[in-house]
Amino acid sequence: MKSSDTILSCTHVRKHFGGVIAVDVDDLEIERESITALIGPNGAGKTTFFDIVTGFLDPDSGQICFEGVDITDKPAHSIAHGGLVRTFQLTRILNKMTVLENMLLAAPNQTGERVGNTFFRRSTIATQERSNADQALDLLDRFSLLPLKDEYGGRLSGGQKKLLELARALMSEPTMVLLDEPMAGVNPALGEQLLQYVLELRDEGMTFLFVEHDMDIVMRISDRVVVMATGEIIADGLPAEVQANPAVLAAYLGEHAEEDIAEAEEGLDQ
Question: Are strands 20-31 and 6-17 parallel, antiparallel or unpaired?
Answer without folding.
Answer: antiparallel
